[in-house]
Amino acid sequence: MDGPWYECQGPTAEQVRKDVSEYISKNSSNINYPLTNDILLKIIPDSRNDFGSWRGYGTFGVAKEIATEVMNEMKKRENALTLLNNRFTPYCMYKLYNPNNGLMMIKTSKTTVIGKNSAIV
Question: Tens digits of per-residue pLDDT, 37-76?
Fold first, then answer.
């Protein structure tokens, strides 16, 4: 190919992941690093090579666009985790451990003396 190297070659997925993680660490205050690495590998797998040339990569802000996509995915996962912690877990705990008719309380009352009126002599 004729032309400068920066128009003929482009970044690898590993280099893009590095650039995106640096961009996120500079521009985002609350980061869960293992979650970010998981999302980075999901969005930028090693087989992906559609980042263009180095010139286009730098000129058109491809790293910023991918970082926005990664941060949106992080926000989705954080919202899902918040929903689980705030809505599902209390509901599940109520259904299991309600003193009157919770599933675990019923099982416990059948196998132990808890909840029985008879006194042990």
Answer: 889 999 999 999 889 899 999 899 999 999 999 999 988 9
> What is residue 101's three-state secondary structure?
coil
Q: Which residues neighbour 43 within 8 Å (Cβ) at sequence distance 6 or greater?
A: 66, 69, 70, 73
CA distance 58 to 116: 73
Q: What single letter denotes the amino acid at residue 10?
A: G
What is the residue extent of each domain of the chain?
Answer: 5-111
DSSP one-letter code for 61: T
Tokens linked to 115: 């909840």
Cα(52)–Cα(54) distance, integer angstroms: 7
pTM to 2 decimal places = 0.72
Contact of 69 with 43, CB cutoff 8 Å: yes
Chain position carrying tokens 């590993």: 14
